[in-house]
Design a protein that fits this description.
By secondary structure, the protein is of the alpha/beta class. The protein has one domain. 16% of the residues lie in helices and 35% in strands. The strands form two sheets. The protein has a six-stranded mixed beta sheet with strand order 4-3-2-1-6-8. Strand 3 and strand 4 form a beta hairpin. The longest helix is centred in the first third of the chain and has 18 residues. The N and C termini lie far apart (54 Å).
């Protein structure tokens, strides 16, 4: 009988310690769907996909779905709907890209600072590459390293570059808050 209060106290201490541990890391999931334009339009109209989902027909036809309508990725900044498609990653989070039908490799995730449509270059505390290098073995799912914290207010746009087997290179954007 005397052991019962000790067990209750021990369980209470264990539960208290568990509540104070660092929560499990957060992962941002991004689906990559490869298929025909017609199939993507039907999937989009069905309305069961996230705006961050990447719809790929070929390297020149990469889309996002907002409000049941497909928008070409290249029209970012020209369409108000694209605010909903922007993937935002915060310090301490990881990104998991997944494609059920095609294997792919993350070639690079680098600052979006060159080329047409890129924001003007600016001084930034953000690193050129926000994640550790990726494994170059094709897979159906790739998980990034954890995004490191700089000061909690540094924000940078990055371009992710994928090689999808049988398709080619596609390059969606991410915004990282470090």
């Amino acid at each position: 009988m005397r052991a019962v209060p000790f067990v209750v106290v021990a369980i209470g201490i264990a539960m208290s310690l568990a509540a104070h541990q660092k929560p499990t890391e957060s992962t941002i999931n991004i689906d990559i769907l490869v298929g025909s334009l017609d199939a993507h339009q039907n999937t989009c109209k069905a309305g069961k996909v996230e705006a961050s989902t990447i719809f790929v027909v070929n390297p020149d036809q990469v889309y996002h779905c907002v409000g049941g309508k497909l928008f070409l990725h290249d029209t970012i900044g020209k369409e108000p709907a694209f605010g909903k498609t922007t993937v935002r990653v915060n310090a301490g989070q990881r990104v998991r890209w997944a494609c059920k039908t095609h294997r792919f490799v993350v070639l690079d995730v680098a600052r979006h600072s060159d080329g047409p449509g890129a924001p003007p270059k600016k001084e930034s505390k953000a690193p050129e590459r926000p994640f550790a290098p990726f494994v170059k073995t094709p897979a159906n799912q790739v998980l990034s390293s954890e995004l490191q914290k700089i000061d909690g207010k540094t924000e940078e746009r990055y371009k992710a570059k994928f090689y999808i087997e049988g398709i080619g290179v596609v390059d969606p954007d991410l915004i990282c808050m470090m």
